[in-house]
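Here we describe the complex-level prediction in full. Unlike the single-chain runs in Section 2.1, the two entities below were treated as one system.
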Amino acid sequence: MSLVNTSRKFAQICATKNPILFTAIRNHWNKDFKPAAFPKTQEERNAAAEKYGLISSEYKPYANDGTGMGDYPELPLTSGDSRDPHYPWDNPELKRNFNEPLHADFEMYGEDRYDVMFKHRTPVYKQFFQFTGVMLGIFIVYGVCENFKMFPGLIPKQYPLQGKKHYTFEVEE
Amino acid sequence: MGNIMGNGVSNGLNLYLHPEITPDPLKEPKNNPLEGFDKLRKERTVKATKAEMESAKIPLQNRDYCVDELLRFKACRKDVWPFAVQCEHEKHAYLNCQYEDYVIRMKEYERERRLMERSAALNAAA
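The structure predicted for the assembly as a whole is:
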C-alpha cells in the first residue's frame, strides 16, 4: 500500500513539475473531441458556443436529424485552397488560426483535397461545347479523309511458287 | 519520296474520283502481261525450292523473288558467325534485289494505269 501511495505522490510531483508530459496523455482523447448532445435551451446554446470559441449569435448547430453531429457548430465551408495564402496564419500548413473552430468535415477540404470554392476558367457549358467541337471536328475530318487514303503506286507484292506467272520488263532474245 | 509525298496523295484522290483509270493497289493487275510486247517477257523465277525455304525457316512474307539472295545471306551469316559483318556483300545483294522488286511493282502499276487510260479513251471514242 505504501508503494501505491509513493507512486501517487511521485506522479503528482511529476504532474506539477512537468505538466506537458502528462497533459498530453490525459487530455484530448477521442471522448474529449466527441460533441455533446444537441442544445435545446438558450443557456445550452450559449454554453456550446463558448465551448467552440464562437459568439452566441454566430453559433448554429447542425440539424438534429440523427447524423450524430450533436452540438457541433455548422461552420461556413471554405477549402484550404481558397484561403488567403498571404494572411499570417498561426498554422500556415493548415491555413488555420489558434483555437479557430474546424469544420466538421475539415479533413475533406484541405489543400490536398477537394476545393468547394473552385472557379472554372471557362464555364462548364462552354467546356462541353469545346469538347464536342474538337471531337466532332476531328471525327468529320477523319470521316471525309477516309475516302482519300494516300498510297504508293504499287501492285501487290509478287510471290513465286503459287501457280502464277510474273514477268520482268526485259524481253527474251 | 516522290512516290509518297507527291503521287501518294493524288493516287488516293484519283482512286476515289477516277476509279476507271486508277488501279487499286490491293488488287492484282487485270490486263494481259504480254500485251504490247513484240517478244516474250522474261519470267521471274527463283532457284530455291519450297523444301529449302522450309528447312531455312524463311518466314512466309520473305519467300518472294529475292529468296535466293536471302538464303545466301543467311547461309553466309551462319558460316562466319559471329563476324556477320563479313556478309556485307550478300546483304547488299539482297537489299538491291528488294529494290529491284519494288521498281518492278511500280512499273507494273504504271503499266496497268496507262492500259486502263488507253482502254477508257478507246471506249470514249467508240
